[in-house]
Amino acid sequence: MSESKGSAVNRVAFIGLGVMGGPMAGHLARAGYEVKVYNRTRERADAWCREYGGTVAATPAEAADGAEVVFACVGRDSDLREVTLGPDGAFERLGSGAVFVDHTTVSAAIARELGEAARERGAGFVDAPVSGGQAGAENGRLAVMAGGSQADFDRVEPIIDCYAARTVRIGEVGAGQLTKMVNQICIAGLVQALSEGVDFAARAELDIDRVLEAIGGGAAQSWQMDNRAKTMSEGRFDFGFAVDWMRKDLEICLDEARRNGSRLPVTALVDQFYAQVQQRGGGRDDTSSLVRLLADP
């Protein structure tokens, strides 16, 4: 194991090897950790092991057995509950003293539920959703927002650093998911505004490259502008963070807002725009495909 990471942990497990989880687990393997993996589709787990080494587990429980830290990156609340508390779930064999780290974007409610379930087993829990997309996972440049005790966070932060450019503990369990909601709320408005700007530039017959050069260093600059404005103008959307997942995330944001009394009028509007993208068959396209609704009303 890489001593530069500063962690005494050696044996880890990773549950969920999708476009995010697969590369993240790969960084752990390359750093020298003993990685046991589980994926619902066995073929993907076998392919991961052929590339990175490690061991395939037949169930989440088997993956967690003997692991000092167990990571998960799955889909929705229901998926996370299945791989943790369901039959043959990871919590069946989550050892006392182990820490479960969830990188899935889910509700704060299930994060707190699992945090309590882990404590009952003498284990720790950190909710640690990520931002940065598939490219961030592949390049080890994710932003991680974490909730959990300081002790649990301190134990897992050096391991998370294998695939993160920034990891910040926000507060107790659930705080990571609430922060990810803030992230998605901000992104929703940014992507819609960028879509309107790109479409406006096209209709004004401006050179989009020169426009971006002019405004990219000013107050309008953002990650979305740097990484998505050009591809928006070119009509390329077959990459990145899918609309289907963004709608899942925005549903979580809107549900939480109803609980805490927040008003999210722009978020609710953009969510409906994304619903229109889905209705047109664009659910798997990148979120920047919002511009299509303007270019082709």
Write a structural description.
This protein has 297 residues and is of the alpha/beta class. It has two domains: 3-172, Rossmann fold (3-Layer(aba) Sandwich), CATH 3.40.50.720; 179-295, N-(1-d-carboxylethyl)-l-norvaline Dehydrogenase, domain 2, CATH 1.10.1040. Helices cover 52% and strands 13% of the residues. The chain contains 13 helices and nine strands. The strands form two sheets. Strands 3-2-1-4-5-6 form a six-stranded parallel β-sheet, with helices on both faces. Strands 7-8-9 form a three-stranded mixed β-sheet. Helix 8 (175-203) crosses helix 11 (243-260). The longest helix is centred in the middle third of the chain and has 29 residues, at 175-203. The termini are far apart.
Write the layout of secondary structure elements.
Elements: E1 11-15, H1 21-30, E2 34-38, H2 42-52, E3 55-56, H3 60-64, E4 69-72, H4 77-85, E5 99-102, H5 108-120, E6 124-127, E7 130-131, H6 133-139, E8 142-147, H7 150-160, E9 164-171, H8 175-203, H9 208-215, H10 223-234, H11 243-260, H12 265-279, H13 291-295
Parallel strand pairs: 1-2, 1-4, 2-3, 4-5, 5-6, 8-9
Antiparallel strand pairs: 7-8
Helix pairs in contact: 1-6, 8-10, 8-11, 8-12, 11-12
Provide a short characterization of the protein structure:
Helix 8 (175-203) crosses helix 10 (223-234) and helix 8 packs across helix 11 (243-260).
Keywords:
single chain; 297 residues; alpha/beta; Rossmann fold; N-(1-d-carboxylethyl)-l-norvaline Dehydrogenase, domain 2; 2 domains; 6-stranded parallel beta sheet; 3-stranded mixed beta sheet; 13 helices; 52% helix; 13% strand; globular; disordered N terminus
